[in-house]
Amino acid sequence: MLASERHQLILSVVREHGAVRLAELVERLGVTAVTVRRDVTELADRGLLTRVHGGVTLTRPRGGHHEPGRAASAFGPAAHGALVGMVAPSVEYYWPTVVQGAQSAVAATGGRLVLRASSYDAAEDRRQITKLLERGVQTLLVAPATSGRGALDLLRWLGSLSVPVVLVERLPPPELPTLALDAATTAHALGAGLAVRHLVSLGHRGVGLVTSRSSPHSPAVRTGWRETIGSLGLDAATALDLDVPAYGAPGWTREYDALLDRCLRAGVRALLVHADREAIGLIERARDGGIAVPGELAVVSYDDEVAAASDPPLTAVCPQKHRLGAVAAELALARLADTTGRPVHRLQLWPTLVVRESCGSAPESGSESTGESGPQ
To answer: Are 280 and 224 a contacting pair, CB within 8 Å?
Structure first.
C-alpha cells in the first residue's frame, strides 16, 4: 500500500470514529508501528489531524470550551501572579533586553519570570524547558532551534505541552504550517528595507550587504535587502552579498580588508552590516586603510546594541527588543487567563531606523520609521 493510500485510510477512520488508537491503525493497515507513527506525524504536521497520547483525533480549534461573559480584546485579560518560564539562546547579545522586557511585563502582573539559557541546540532547548516544567512554570516563552537536527521534533513537542507556549523571534518552519503556537517576532526584512531606502535617499545607487556568519537573523535581513534592491531598481552589479567572520575571530582583519577592497573595486560606497560589532570592525579597518567613513563609505548597522558608541556613531536599524519581550509575555499571560476558543496570535513588531553620522547626514532627533502590526 502506498503512503498516500495509507494517509487517506487513516483520515477516513479518524473521520468515522473521531479518535483512533495507534495500535488499532497498525492492525487495520497491516504495517509496522514505526510506519503508522511516521504517517500520523506527517498528517499532523500538515494540520489534517491531531496527535494525542497513544492515538490521533480530528484536528480541533485550540482552546477550551466557551465561557460567556469574558471580555474580548487583542490580548485578553492577563493572568496574575503567574510563574513564567523563559528559555533564551543567549544572555550575552541581543537577548538581555528581550528578557528585561518580558520580566517587566510579568512583574507588572505580580508574577515571576524564571530564565534559563540554551545554545541554539534543540536537545539543549528541550533539556532546559523540561527543567522549567519540573520547576512548575505555568507558561513558557521560548526561542527554540527551528532548523537542524531535532528541531522539528522539538517544535512538535512544544505544541503538545499542556502549558501555553509563546515563540519569541521564531516562527514554525514550512514543514509545520499549522503548529498552533502564539509568536512574537521582529520584521527584520522590513528593517533591512528601511536601511536600504535611507541610503538610496542619500544618493547611493548601489548598496552592499555584509552579514555575520553566526547570526540566525541574517536570512531575514538578506531577504529584505534583496527585495528592496529589486523594488527600487538598483544596480545589480553593485549589490554585493558578502559575509564575514565575527569581529575578533581568527583572521578577521584579513577578511575585512579584502571585503573593503572588493567593495571599492566594484564601486560600492554604501553598506548594510549585520551586526554592530561587524560594522564597528569594518569602520576600524577602513580608517586604518585610509577610507573615510562617511566621506568615502556609508555604513548602516543592524541591531543597534552599541552602534551609538562607534566612531563615527553608526546609523542603525533598531529592533524593539524590550517591547518584543513584553509583548511575548503579555501573549503568554493572556493565553493562560483565557479558557475560551482563543485563536492563535502571531504578532510582528517593526524595527526603527536611528539616523546618526555614519552615512554622511546630520543626526536627527527621532526615528525615521516605527511601528508594530497587530495580531496576524
So the answer is: no
